Amino acid sequence: MAEEQNAQAAAGDQPAQDQLQFALQRIYVKDVSFEAPNSPAVFSQPFQPKVGLELDTEHQQVGEELFEVSIKVTAQVTNGEDQTTAFLAEVEQAGLFRIAGLSAEQLDHTLGAFCPNVLFPYAREAIDNLVNRGSFPPLMLAPVNFEAMYAQRKQREAQQQGAEATAH
Fold this sequence. Notes:
This protein is α+β, with helices and mostly antiparallel strands and 168 residues long. The protein has one domain: SecB-like (Bacterial Protein-export protein SecB, Roll). Helix content is 37%, strand content 36%. The chain contains three helices and four strands; from the N terminus they run H-E-E-E-E-H-H. The radius of gyration is 22 Å and the shape is globular. The N and C termini lie far apart (54 Å). Mean pLDDT is 88; it is low at 4-12. Homotetramer, a dimer of dimers. One homotetramer interacts with 1 SecA dimer. InterPro entries: SecB, SecB-like_sf.
């Protein structure tokens, strides 16, 4: 019996929606920016950086079973006690993913946690490259736990829905 099902699946007899499909189609930089507003003066001071980091993810369906997922990373580094901006680096790293055969909940999790995990190393490299080209010391961003970020976002959404339900 199992052999027959495997043979049918291999022959393509099963409906496409029953088969899990996940394929990375393309990875690309959607937007990039680097500013060093206080150069060259910043290079003549001792470098005592303070790093501020913002991270955001988005996703949208762009075709049948085709989704764009993007990560926006903004790193603002200030220097010294007066906290003047040494540099500001922003990268929006994106990818196209072909995904099929998942429930709505599984798809949301895949787009909100798994796909950003795939994209983050590329965004991290792009930020480091920009900082290096700006003649600053390397900025190696630590790995990000997108699973935890996804869980926190879902928890916030549930709390907001609960608050709205009690308000009515």
